[in-house]
């Protein structure tokens, strides 16, 4: 069976973190959908887990794009909790609560695996059972910026720290894994400011595990042009989305996904 018969092709996807650059995931998945390729399951962390939650909840990429375009999902300052982190994910939590139609992993139409980092041990934790929203918030809580999210007495922080391309939940269960990484390491620029250098330091700290997990993917999508956007460029959704969409369209045009299902 193939695309000519209009039979959907299912592939497991891995979606990385990347802050605002996570918007590109929607563009990437849109390009695959145009080729009749849809997620069979998704493993994701940080910003990737936000995009993945909507897709696994049954939303189309066009519907997710509308939600992101017309909903405030930025950051707020939490003056009451400065010792653990001065930013809050309350806006994100509100949007997820109001928009997601399924509240548990088990009830999702598409299997989802969300990874966060145990802040006590530093180890990767895989969430695929129980409440959905706390796991997404935990996976997105960058240390020093956001307070850890406590789940069953354990503090969790951003999953990118323990693995920003979390292919682990899919290994042994799925084949032909498609990895999508939206945090490209850009060339060093000595003229960069403090903020850019802080971001670069964070990228370098988590980069090597990404390279190793990249080798476990049958296809790896990493739009280098995303390097011109910052982690907190939340107002540049359309530009970030378009980079992911157009890059993946070119890749699939040059090297189509195998037609077998």
TrEMBL record:
Residue ranges annotated for the PNPLA domain, each copy included: 13-171
Motif extent (DGA/G): 158-160
Alphabetized PROSITE patterns for the sequence: PNPLA
Signal sequence interval, chain numbering: none
Active site: 46 (nucleophile), 158 (proton acceptor)
CDD domains: Pat_PNPLA6_PNPLA7_NTE1_like
Keywords for this protein: Hydrolase, Lipid degradation, Lipid metabolism
SUPFAM superfamilies associated with the record: FabD/lysophospholipase-like (SSF52151)
Keyword presence, Transmembrane helix: no
InterPro entries in the cross-refs: Acyl_Trfase/lysoPLipase, NTE, PNPLA_dom
Motif (GXGXXG): 17-22
Protein name as annotated: Patatin-like phospholipase family protein
Species assigned in the record: Chitinophaga filiformis (Myxococcus filiformis)
Lineage, broadest ranks: Bacteria, Pseudomonadati, Bacteroidota, Chitinophagia, Chitinophagales
């Amino acid at each position: 069976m193939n695309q000519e018969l209009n039979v959907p092709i299912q592939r497991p996807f891995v979606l990385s973190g990347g802050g605002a650059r996570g918007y590109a995931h929607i563009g990437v998945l849109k390009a695959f959908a145009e080729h009749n390729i849809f997620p069979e399951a998704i493993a994701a962390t940080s910003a990737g887990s936000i995009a993945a939650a909507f897709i696994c909840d049954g939303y189309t990429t066009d519907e997710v794009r509308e939600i992101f375009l017309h909903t405030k999902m930025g950051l707020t300052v939490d003056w009451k909790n400065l010792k653990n982190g001065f930013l809050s994910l309350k806006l994100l939590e509100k949007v997820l609560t109001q928009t997601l139609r399924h509240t548990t992993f088990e009830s999702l139409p598409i299997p989802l695996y969300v990874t966060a980092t145990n802040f006590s041990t530093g180890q990767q934790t895989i969430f695929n059972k129980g409440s959905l929203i706390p796991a997404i918030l935990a996976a997105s809580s960058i240390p020093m910026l956001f307070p850890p999210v406590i789940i069953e007495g354990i503090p969790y922080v951003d999953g990118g720290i323990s693995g920003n391309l979390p292919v682990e939940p899919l290994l042994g269960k799925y084949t032909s894994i498609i990895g999508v990484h939206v945090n490209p390491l850009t060339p060093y620029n000595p003229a960069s400011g403090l903020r850019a250098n802080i971001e670069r330091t964070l990228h370098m700290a988590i980069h090597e595990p990404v390279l190793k997990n990249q080798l476990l993917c049958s296809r790896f999508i990493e739009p280098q042009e995303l390097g011109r956007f910052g982690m907190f460029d939340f107002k540049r959704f359309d530009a970030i989305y378009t980079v992911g969409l157009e890059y993946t369209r070119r890749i699939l045009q040059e090297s189509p996904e195998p037609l077998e299902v």
